[in-house]
Amino acid sequence: MEINKIVSESLSAVREKNPLVHHITNYVTVNDCANITLAIGGSPVMADDINEVYDMVSLASSFVINIGTLNSRTVEAMIKGGKRANELNIPVILDPVGAGATPYRTEVAKRILEEIRISVIRGNLSEIKTLYGVKTKTKGVDSGDVIDENADEFTKAKKISKDFAKKLNTVVVITGAVDIITDGNNLYSVYNGQKIMSKITGTGCMCTSLIGSYLGATENVLVAALSGIVSMGIAGEIACENLDKSNEGTGTLKVRIIDAIFNLNEKVIIDRGKIMNEG
């Protein structure tokens, strides 16, 4: 319950500070990422041109890099923006969407990790395994691997995430049926969320934006990452509970997730957060 309280205080910090969260993200989910950033209490900006990224990042509280829809123009903007963020000690979060699907996508993700100091990496199991160096299967931009808390895969995922976090001196987040968040020393697993969330394009991207919002208001990077994950999971549960299963589906669910984030408060996080300290 103590960690739930800490997460709830992070939410208050976001709403008090209204951090500017600069995104270079993908055009499939850019609108959703902007809206969920607004809903949690941040202020989104989506400037991706290399001619202004240096100046825009300089104004930001955090910088989100999402490689969902890659092109050579935005890759260079990502690198330039990330290096500027590093100069100013502005936290950077990487969402390596689809790493492992194509050689180019994997190469870009690894280049970002080599050239930019990343505060948080958030991906599914396949993406993280690819960047860690484990052979895996990726279906388009979807994970070919599934974390089951009762399976040996969960134990392996925890080890990989811890080792990877130590290697890069960053926080690694693996999202799935069970979410894993670690800085290499401390590890939390989160059991919030609903399976139907995977049927909506952009829930992962929106989750990354939430983490970016918390990073812009919270000095503790591990807590910021954990807060974004818990917030998204709780919002998914509330959205599903409020869904009229006879008439409504995934379109309404996405809207309700954003509504749930907008209405999220400290009491809801304390009461509903399913966080396990795995040591």
From TrEMBL:
It catalyses: 5-(2-hydroxyethyl)-4-methylthiazole + ATP = 4-methyl-5-(2-phosphooxyethyl)-thiazole + ADP + H(+). Pathway: Cofactor biosynthesis; thiamine diphosphate biosynthesis; 4-methyl-5-(2-phosphoethyl)-thiazole from 5-(2-hydroxyethyl)-4-methylthiazole: step 1/1. Substrate binds at residues 46, 202. It is an enzyme of class 2 (transferase). Keywords: ATP-binding, Kinase, Magnesium, Metal-binding, Nucleotide-binding, Thiamine biosynthesis, Transferase. Catalyzes the phosphorylation of the hydroxyl group of 4-methyl-5-beta-hydroxyethylthiazole (THZ). This is Hydroxyethylthiazole kinase. The gene is thiM.
